[in-house]
Structure to design on (964 residues):
């Protein structure tokens, strides 16, 4: 019996229910209601974000596939295409960190190989609450081992990524997983269900009761009933997915299928309806034929299950046996459970009876779209007032404290739990700004980076959005890559709160503006709303995943100094900007102020200069200035150099010393060059209209930084290295 | 000469090893499928790294029972060259072709990092081009690489000079710190008594190109090619 309570339990509003009744001209049964509740959930339908996402630039001459498919696709030449996407698995990772993160990896990988691409790299953007709380530590440990457990086993390297800590993530950790694969340009597959009569095959793992309502759960706030939601989290099996990956790629290589779609969020429901919708057809399936690993499952449970490692394939009628033979080789189920039909309806049979008969259009295309109310948040007024911040008495101490703050310190504790070298493509660049993966058979490489500083976005969402794009591109420029495509994961609170909607709109505007100026298309991504627990929302956290191309592997550049006596050059300009910095947050315990401002045109000039100078062989090392400012950037260059070369830097700027050392002004890169390149590099900088400043030399065993004649920082490299390396291992050390 | 790289379900360094043999060393290499019985006249068999059968039950344990492995055993008894890398090493232990077992790493975490290895025995087909005491920089990537065997077995291993590679520091010194996974006697690579079957936890195929950060792994392949040549 469908009453108000049942409707509410399915996260549908009374108005939405009315609309369903109107669309199908009768009351739905419970299975049908379940189907609508999933497909009309925020997670699947993007009903609150759709109209805003339209602002993002999606065009570009190399775009093969923009938003709307499992993943975006960019032509990378040599007959190859890069297929990539980022997706969140925040809610499940909070409830069950290991499985939540593991299935996040599994899910994004299916999105990539569904399109015919072999995944070659994974990356994660992780956000946790402060590690001083035991609960946050255990979440982080669980998430990292979940990613490691799944990614290592399936044999796709997890290279780089970022980790930030902020109290706003204590009850809402974020796990955003990025994957990229390479496909042959002429062998790309889509979620198509063409040709009435073509068989629909269910392949991969059997269906169980796990993950029922996963997508609905991800579309609501968490409250006190948190613990009861554990059964909504799916359980991953990387071994099964490895078999599925190999079998699918083998089938795709042989031209046996029409279309394929993974069963991720919303499982059978989503895959059947989306495939039919994209081809304007219908699908008929018989649930009695679905491989099951639990007894007496109801049609409702089967349609809503989010059991992992499953795919739906529409095969060519006369090649279906070959498909089944390949799956049998890999010891996998490949069962015909139905067929493509004319007429645009989803028909589901169970026990000989039709239990679902719905127009696909109603489920997919006629989902309501909302323009949610938006309002400038009240917190802003007080948050952007930084007030007076005292300068530290002891700069060495402040410097070491910052280097050991978890957000800035080295994440090797995380990184070495991930197999980051499998597939023999990873160019070893410890601590580099971006991961670099060579493309076998060419002399090119792809670079990948994730970025998103939520404190900036909290204080000024539009600026935060711009900086997320700019910094990611700057990271790419530092390794020698030019940006070619963007995917984004937009993590926000509840869209039903006007203040959150405002943050969302502003951030998107910033991202859109920056992407336009850098001329890079957004090829898709994911929106994760409802990151609220007990009414508290996370800071708005757009995470940008940007893919870059290194045209010649000879120009791959790292952050560490190459030799003693190289000249240290600062590109860009130091400004007195302290707002929203890690320094103000860690040392002065405030999340306040106006975040660093950014001139996107200037940013572009700096990056293009960096790339040009690298390709001319003028640059030995490059590292971008971000959290922790110039001082932390220099320290990292030094610590990451072979033999831990020191620095002597002399700054001439006239401003507060703390702003100069730790401020996070944008559009800055520290490069090193050989003395003999000095003239050429400064000449080129002048020509390109880029500010370049000689700030010192590499060498020695100490990091010394002075402003005018005043020595501010003077510590042995070994001491800085210890602070930076040991901070996180120390927190997790078993005592 | 011809190399055969075995594919188990869940192998994930099979293509890497194949690529290095064929594209870097220009060798004749083929894949061998775990369900078959035919070794296709190969001269050397490599059991690659990965997670055969998901490493469920115990690393390498299920793979040891696959049909092809019975032929590999036969091949090894007849003196054929067999190299097990990482998961392949674990399979060789489970097969009983090498003595001992693997425990979980001492820090109970998966470890993927470069390590230094001291070559203690160069009188093998796998290390003949190395100098005794030479230190190699090659990455590891495993959860269960903490080598263990009974005191009697380890005595035997030492007596027969079966310890080929040991975890050390950059200067070849052994220490608890350098012994990252906690292996008994710092063992990273072990050979059988007759000297034709070797297992090693580090991945030489990941250290065969300068672009990727190290070429020290080439010594293993070059030694093999020389001994087969």
């Amino acid at each position: 019996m469908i009453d108000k309570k049942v409707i509410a339990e399915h996260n549908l509003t009374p108005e939405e229910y009315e609309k369903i009744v109107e669309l199908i001209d009768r009351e739905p049964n419970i299975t049908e209601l379940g189907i609508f509740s999933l497909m009309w959930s925020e997670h699947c339908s993007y009903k609150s974000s759709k109209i805003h996402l339209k602002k993002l630039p999606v065009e570009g001459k190399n775009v093969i596939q923009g938003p709307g498919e499992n993943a975006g696709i960019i032509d990378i030449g040599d007959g190859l295409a890069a297929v990539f996407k980022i997706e969140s698995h925040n809610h499940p990772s909070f409830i069950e960190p290991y499985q939540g993160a593991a299935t996040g990896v599994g899910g994004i990988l299916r999105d990539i190989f569904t399109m015919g691409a072999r995944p070659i790299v994974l990356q994660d953007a992780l956000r946790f609450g402060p590690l001083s709380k035991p609960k946050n530590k255990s979440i982080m440990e669980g998430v990292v081992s979940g990613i490691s457990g799944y990614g290592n086993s399936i044999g796709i390297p997890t290279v780089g990524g970022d980790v930030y800590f902020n109290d706003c993530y204590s009850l809402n950790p974020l796990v955003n997983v990025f994957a990229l694969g390479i496909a042959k340009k002429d062998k790309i597959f889509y979620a198509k269900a063409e040709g009435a009569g073509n068989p629909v095959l269910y392949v991969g793992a059997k269906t169980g009761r796990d993950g029922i309502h996963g997508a609905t759960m991800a579309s609501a706030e968490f409250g006190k009933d948190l613990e009861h939601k554990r059964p909504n989290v799916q359980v991953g099996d990387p071994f099964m997915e490895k078999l599925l990956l190999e079998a699918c790629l083998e089938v795709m290589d042989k031209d046996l299928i029409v279309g394929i779609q993974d069963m991720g969020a919303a499982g059978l429901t989503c895959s059947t309806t989306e495939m039919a919708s994209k081809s304007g057809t219908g699908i008929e399936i018989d649930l009695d034929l679905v491989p099951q690993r639990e007894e007496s499952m109801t049609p409702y449970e089967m349609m809503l299950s989010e059991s992992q490692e499953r795919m739906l394939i529409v095969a060519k009628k006369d090649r279906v046996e070959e498909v089944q033979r390949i799956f049998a080789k890999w010891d996998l189920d490949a069962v015909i459970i139905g067929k493509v039909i004319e007429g645009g309806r989803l028909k589901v049979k169970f026990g000989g009876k039709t239990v679902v008969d719905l127009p696909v259009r109603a489920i997919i295309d006629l989902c309501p779209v909302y323009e949610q109310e938006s309002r400038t948040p009240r917190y802003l007024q007080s948050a952007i007032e930084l007030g007076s911040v005292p300068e530290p008495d002891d700069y060495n101490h402040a410097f070491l404290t910052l280097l050991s703050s978890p957000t800035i310190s080295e994440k090797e504790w995380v990184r070495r739990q991930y197999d980051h070298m499998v597939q023999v493509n990873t160019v070893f660049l410890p601590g580099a700004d971006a991961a670099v993966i060579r493309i076998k058979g060419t002399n090119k490489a792809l670079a990948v980076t994730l970025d998103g500083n939520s404190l900036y976005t909290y204080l000024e969402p539009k600026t935060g959005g711009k900086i997320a794009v700019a910094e990611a591109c700057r990271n790419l420029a530092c390794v020698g890559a030019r940006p070619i495509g963007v995917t984004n994961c937009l993590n926000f609170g509840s869209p039903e709160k006007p203040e959150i909607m405002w943050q969302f709109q502003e951030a998107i505007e910033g991202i859109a503006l920056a992407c336009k100026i850098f001329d890079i298309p957004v090829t898709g991504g994911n929106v994760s709303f409802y990151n609220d627990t007990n009414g508290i929302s996370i800071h708005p956290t757009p995470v940008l995943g940007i893919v870059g191309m290194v045209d010649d592997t000879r120009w791959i550049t790292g952050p560490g100094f190459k030799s003693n006596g190289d000249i240290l050059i600062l590109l860009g300009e130091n400004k007195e900007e302290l707002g929203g910095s890690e320094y103000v947050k860690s040392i002065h315990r405030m999340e306040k102020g106006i975040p660093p401002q950014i001139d996107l045109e200037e940013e572009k000039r700096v990056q293009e200069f960096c790339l040009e100078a690298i390709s001319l062989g003028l640059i030995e090392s490059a590292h971008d200035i971000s959290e922790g400012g110039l001082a932390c950037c220099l320290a990292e260059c030094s610590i990451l150099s072979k033999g831990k070369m020191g620095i002597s830097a002399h700054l001439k700027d006239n401003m507060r010393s703390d702003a100069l050392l730790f401020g996070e002004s944008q559009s800055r890169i520290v490069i090193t060059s050989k003395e003999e390149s000095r003239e050429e590099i400064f000449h080129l900088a002048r020509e390109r209209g880029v500010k370049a400043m000689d700030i010192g030399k590499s060498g020695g065993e100490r990091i010394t930084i002075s402003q005018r004649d005043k020595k501010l920082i003077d510590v042995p490299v070994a001491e800085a290295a210890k602070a930076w390396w040991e901070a996180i291992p120390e927190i997790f050390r078993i005592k | 000469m011809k190399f055969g790289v075995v594919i188990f379900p869940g192998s994930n360094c099979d293509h890497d090893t194949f690529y290095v043999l064929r594209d870097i060393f220009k060798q004749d290499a083929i894949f061998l499928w775990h369900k078959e019985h035919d070794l296709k006249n190969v001269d050397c068999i490599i059991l690659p790294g990965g997670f055969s059968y998901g490493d469920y039950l115990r690393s390498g344990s299920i793979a040891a029972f696959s049909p092809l492995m019975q032929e590999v055993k036969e091949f090894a008894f007849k003196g054929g060259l067999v190299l097990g890398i990482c998961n392949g090493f674990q399979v060789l232990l489970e097969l009983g072709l090498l003595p001992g077992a693997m425990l979980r790493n001492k820090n109970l975490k998966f470890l993927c990092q470069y390590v230094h290895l001291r070559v203690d025995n160069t009188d093998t087909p796998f290390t003949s081009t190395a100098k005794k005491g030479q230190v190699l920089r090659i990455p590891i990537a495993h959860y269960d690489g903490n080598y263990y065997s009974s005191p009697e077995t380890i005595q035997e291993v030492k007596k027969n000079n079966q310890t080929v590679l040991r975890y050390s520091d950059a200067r070849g010194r052994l220490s608890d710190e350098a012994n990252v996974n906690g292996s008994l006697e710092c063992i990273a690579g072990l050979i059988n008594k007759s000297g034709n079957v070797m297992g090693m936890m580090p991945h030489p195929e990941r250290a065969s190109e300068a672009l990727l950060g190290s070429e020290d792994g080439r010594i293993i392949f070059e030694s093999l090619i020389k001994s087969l040549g």
In short: The domain at 2-228 of chain B is CATH 3.40.50.880 (Rossmann fold). Residues 14-24 of chain B form the longest helix (11 residues).
